[in-house]
Amino acid sequence: MLWWQAILLKLLNTLPKYLCDMEMIAVQERIPCLDLKGQHQQIKREVFEAFEKVYENTAFSGGPFVEEFEQGFAAFCGTKYAVGVNNGTSALHLAMLALGIGPGDEVIVPANTFIATAWGVSYTGATPVFVDCTSDTWQLDTTKIEDKITSNTKAIVGVHLYGQPFNIEAVAAVCKKYKLFMLEDGAQAQGARYKGIPVGGFGEMACFSFYPGKNLGACGEAGGVTTNNEAYYKHLLSLRNHGSVVRYYHNEVGYNMRMGGLESASLNVKLKYITAWNNRRRAIAKQYQQQITSPKIQLQVQPDWVESVYHLFVVTTADRDGLLKYLNEKSIFPGLHYPVPCHLQKAYAHLGYKEGDCPNAEYLANHCLSLPMYAELKDEDVAYVIETLNRY
Ligand SMILES: Cc1ncc(COP(=O)(O)O)c(C=O)c1O
After folding, report:
1. Which of 201, 301, 304, 362 could join 79 via S-S bond, C-beta 3.0 to 4.6 A?
2. For the chain, what is the mean pLDDT?
């Protein structure tokens, strides 16, 4: 064989590998933390038909489609009532008002949550009191609550963060002991179960967000409150509608926080699919849990009695920036939930918290990242994320 023939042969031999690598690059092109396009393409026709009905009925604010969603969502959560509102932050605000919480009151809130959990408290004039999370489940550390209870404490908000139910029985026990209200923030956890029971009916009320990126997300902004208590239910209906039950008669200062018709119509369609979508998220999470073997990556600990819906799949690692850079180079783009814990946010500087007050929440903020997680994530992408992490 001539020298140039040998070189040509070698080149030809490496071509399949090169093409294969190109294929990997094509797959790798973009694996984001969340991609809403796949879901919305799948159900586009159904959602547009639902929008058309809203349009024909001019039922743009409140109305029959919102009522349909309220009944469907209450059934989904196994609660007597659900009240649709304009977003999850309003749901928290109205739930606080329905409990009668206001200036001078204190409400226990996890330091490790999205800030809106605390906004609901602050909007009423009450003060959020932040409690650290545990170092393994990353949920409210129930052993640290009692130290924070004062004569002004009125309620505890537990958050089913990342889609994983918090330790409901332990929080309920503290509430019972000190005669406090318990609220669930289920914004990230539609369909999650605690000891086999869906979240949403454990506290006085549970607050949900249907922000587009949530497991059950509207085509627009939306939220809701579930409850088994008729008095709270009726009060919420009034509060969200200018403090009015009979039109133009206002019994109290109320709010315009109604759910939109188009949003509710999209939710009515999605409610049919949410269980299948949650199951797909569970299957992806199982692969992550079973196959991520890198000692550099720590996963969230899950007690046996919780069934998460994996709104987020959060992991921690010592050198978060290093891992992010490495993953980005491999075309994987994790999210970051959340970079600053609530007690250290500037908005709450006046409360006087300092670094070290909630060490586990602070550790998470500095070391967490959220792996790609959405129902439409392809099996080969999941495998690629796992393989890439294990090679780190
Ligand atoms: C834990 C938690 N609580 C409350 C909210 C607020 O919901 P929304 O964005 O619909 O106001 C969110 C949404 O991001 C959340 O994740």
Report:
1. 201
2. 94
